[in-house]
Amino acid sequence: MNLITIILIAVGLAMDAFAVSVASGIAIKRQRLRNAFKFGIFFGSFQVIMPVVGWLAGLRLKDFVMNIDRWIAFGLLVFIGCKMIYESFKLEEKEEAASYGLNTMLLLSVATSMDALAVGLSFAFLGVSITTPVIIIGVVTFMLSFLGIFIGESIGHFFERKLEALGGLVLIGIGIKILLEHLL
Predict the structure, then answer these.
(1) pTM higher than 0.90 for the full model?
(2) Which residues contact residue 127 at a Cβ distance below 8 angstroms, ignoring those fewer than 6 apart?
(3) Which of 6, 28, 90, 170 would be a feasible disulfide site paired with 12, CB 3.0-4.6 Å?
(4) What tens digit of pLDDT does each residue of 41-58 get?
(5) DSSP H or E segment with residue 10
(6) Domain of 74: which CATH number?
(7) What is the domain count for the chain?
């Protein structure tokens, strides 16, 4: 898997965390720098942990699915992408907790990194080493989450849903690329 593909996956995975950070940036009135670091560290850390967990699980399952691994990776990425696009068009507003304490941050971090678990599983099926991707995913998520707090203050909810849909389209595109490489 080349570096560009890994970066695109990282950006796609970080869109949920970025959208939550933008929305939270609207609500946070004080200590923006402190909160930007908190969001970046929490979201970035979970985006590192979850693919590793998925990758380890995938290594255990790899022998059972060796003949269909590319199809599974394609299916997972397309499913995650479609889910992100669907969620970006929901009519109801996403409600964020007024307080961003430890429990809230843990819940938000897990919720925004579940897709990364499935991507880690895909990496195992594809035989991709996990080290470089998780570092890139973690750094990209940290940076986008950190910036999201400040962007939220500036642009508000205008782009939030569009960014989540864009992340979904990126993941679908990567899933199609993996499948086409396998078939051709």
Answers:
(1) no
(2) none
(3) 170
(4) 999 999 999 999 999 998
(5) helix 3-27
(6) 1.20.1250
(7) 1
